[in-house]
Write a structure and sequence with these properties.
TIM Barrel; alpha/beta; 8-stranded mixed sheet; single chain; Ala_racemase_N; Lyase, Ornithine Decarboxylase, Chain A, domain 1; pyridoxal phosphate
């Protein structure tokens, strides 16, 4: 007789918080960015567990929307995506880790070669009969990964390099794309145009989400949006695309606290009026940053309950946080509170926490019950 799986099913009632992930919105965001990219191919960055929403469901939904090329940070991420996108091209942005060239070929993923050391190892692997393909990363001003332009110039003098190393793409990365007026954008574009001339016939990629918005000149042959796909802001002062992630936490207790009392660790915030305080079953162990809490000298983030904003009160704990629901008389134990989503932009919460949307999304913990809307 078969035995049933004794593992309890994770539900919002057992976890205390929940994520609603709209895969339809993800697909529509990709389509909107693809329309902006014109004739350039639109890929998708799904690194960091697809910015926290789940690499496999994200890649599956994006594949169904028409995406054919994906970018990850690590080989393991590439193997995950390959499982649900068997025909896709997958590039590994963090380059070639030492000793694993053959594993890239076995998993049908392509390292983005970013240094001469990596290039030498990849060259030796190919010379020994390896058939894997790769991209070449040229640094145009980010000063993070990539061979220098001078190194690229020397490499380009070897006319058989592209075929011998199985190169299928040359790319770089914008440092300030989210600030359109920054002069480094134009300098990187000019350098990338020179790089394109060095490697005729190779497809070229420069633009992330923000780069798409900079215009046609930045698109080259392939664009690779990231944060914009997931509903995060990508241009200063411009609204994001559709909300993909809604994070919520449950009220587990409501208490009346007199004026003059403090709330939470360190007595960081003193109440200036008598308040109804709701305690939420979530905290920094769930990726809601401690720095988003409130003190007497610094207001914290807010949440949304029954269509009304409620400010955080005091410090955020590992598993708990407090909000002021004095002005929301309908608040009840068991209610769900929006931490961020369509009514509370993730960027606003990130600003209150003195960080960025990327960090909040990729920090989402494993204690959320996840519900996916749209086709899986």
């Amino acid at each position: 007789m078969e035995q049933s799986d004794p593992t309890p099913v994770q539900t919002p009632a057992t976890t205390g918080n929940r994520l609603t992930i709209d895969l339809g919105a993800l697909a529509r965001n990709w389509q909107a960015l693809a329309a902006q990219a014109g004739t350039a191919e639109t890929a998708a960055a799904v690194k960091g567990n697809a910015y926290g929403i789940g690499a496999e469901p994200a890649a599956r939904a994006l594949s169904r929307a028409g995406c054919r090329t994906f970018f990850v940070a690590l080989p393991e991420e590439g193997f995950q995506v390959r499982a649900v996108a068997p025909e896709a091209t997958i590039y590994v942005l963090n380059g070639l880790a030492s000793g694993v060239a053959a594993a890239h070929e076995a998993g049908n993923i392509r390292p983005v070669i970013g240094s001469l050391d990596e290039l030498r190892e990849w060259s030796a692997y190919r010379a020994a009969g390896g058939q894997g393909q790769a991209a070449l990363h040229v640094d145009t001003g980010m000063n993070r990964l990539g061979v220098t332009f001078a190194e690229a110039l020397e490499l380009a003098s070897d006319r058989g390099l592209t075929e011998r190393l199985g190169l299928t793409l040359v790319m770089s990365h914008l440092a300030c794309g989210d600030t359109p007026a920054h002069p480094l954008n134009a300098r990187q574009l000019a350098t990338m145009q020179d790089v394109r001339a060095l490697f005729p016939g190779l497809p070229v990629s420069l633009a992330n989400t923000a780069g798409i918005a900079l215009g046609h000149d930045y698109h080259f042959n392939l664009v690779r949006p990231g944060i914009g796909l997931y509903g995060g802001p990508y241009i200063e002062g411009e609204p994001p695309l559709e909300t993909v992630v809604t994070a919520e936490a449950r009220i587990i207790q409501i208490r009346d606290v007199p004026a003059g009392e403090t709330v939470g660790y360190g007595a960081a915030q003193t109440l200036t009026r008598a308040c109804r305080i709701a305690i939420l079953s979530t905290g920094y162990a769930d990726g809601y940053h401690r720095s988003a809490g409130a003190t007497d000298g610094h207001p914290g983030a807010s949440v949304v309950l029954h269509g009304h904003r409620a400010p955080l009160v005091g410090r955020i704990s590992m598993d708990l946080m407090a909000i002021d629901v004095t002005d929301i008389p309908a608040a009840r134990r068991g209610d769900w509170v929006e931490l961020f989503g369509p009514n509370m932009p993730v960027a606003e919460v990130a600003t209150a926490a003195r960080t960025i949307s990327y960090e909040l999304l990729t920090s989402l913990g494993g204690r959320y019950a996840r519900h996916y809307r749209g086709a899986l």
